[in-house]
Amino acid sequence: MLYFAYGSNLNHFQMKRRCKDSVFLKKINLKNFKLTFRSKYRAADIEPKKNSIVPGGLFEISKSDEKKLDMYEDFPTLYKKFYFSYYGKKIMTYTMVKKTKFMYPTERYLNVVKRGYSDCKLDKKFLKKALLTK
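^ thats the sequence. predicted structure below, dont judge the formating
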């Protein structure tokens, strides 16, 4: 199954620890969405926004990896699954169920995400922009 990571799961070390079968394929952009941070966890989330993109990592994951991610993402309480099509392929990601206001992430979490941006060779300007958003 194909999984789109846009937050801390971009971090290759963390992703391998969580999902032993996961394989990073390439970086892709999710169109007409923007990155934000919210909830009491101050975690990454995506929301629809015209003419905006969320860069992320495309991973191949196994069924057992998906079950582990479901637990980690507190599915279906905190995050729900969202499917989109990319060049005819069905891709799964997570999006928060309750859209709370913007909450600046903790330094520790943000460092994990920044490392993930480096691991996947993503442009950090999108991350910086998300952090400026109120």
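The mean pLDDT is 96.
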